[in-house]
Amino acid sequence: MADQMKELMDVPRDFLKDGTQFINRCTKPDKREFIRISQAVGVGFVIMGTIGYFVKLIHIPVNNILVGAA
Fold first, then answer.
1. Count of Cβ atoms closer than 10 Å to residue 48 Cβ
2. Distance CA 34, CA 22 (A)
3. Rounded to whole angstroms, how far apart are CA atoms 20 and 3?
4. Is the backbone of residue 29 left (phi > 0), alpha (psi -120 to 50) or beta?
5. What is the DSSP letter of 29?
6. Backbone angles phi and psi of 6, in degrees to 5
7. How far apart, in whole angstroms, are the C-alpha atoms of residue 26 and residue 21?
8. CA geometry: angle at 63 spanning 49 and 43, to 5°?
9. How far apart are CA 1 and CA 8, in angstroms?
10. How do residues 7-39 score in pLDDT, each as one tens digit?
């Protein structure tokens, strides 16, 4: 019973220790790195938006054919 209680108390302590190590290892990006990340995210948004647009463009007529046939 004491071992279970000790293990239960170790979980939050280990979590806080790991979290503190992670935060201390993190660094704030410099301006150049931030701009590169922002550009990559922007390109990703444009690509996903374009794919979504073309999927919707194809889906509407196909859906009308399937629903119209019923």
1. 10
2. 20
3. 26
4. beta
5. -
6. -65, -45
7. 9
8. 5
9. 11
10. 888 888 999 999 999 999 998 899 999 999 999
Are 14 and 21 contacting, i.e. CB atoms less than 8 angstroms apart? Answer: no
Structure token digits, residue 14? 């280990």
Phi-psi region of 28 (alpha: psi -120 to 50; beta: other; left: phi over 0): beta
pTM for the model: 0.57
- Which pLDDT score, from 0 to 100, does residue 69 have? 63
> How far is residue 47 from each of residues 11, 40, 69, measured CA to CA in Å?
42, 11, 33
Q: Tell the residue number behind the tokens 């647009």, with chain if given.
A: 53
Amino acid at 47: I
In angstroms, rounded to a whole number, what is the distance separating the alpha carbons of residues 14 and 52? 43
| Residue 70: pLDDT over 60 | no
The three-class DSSP label of residue 60 is: helix
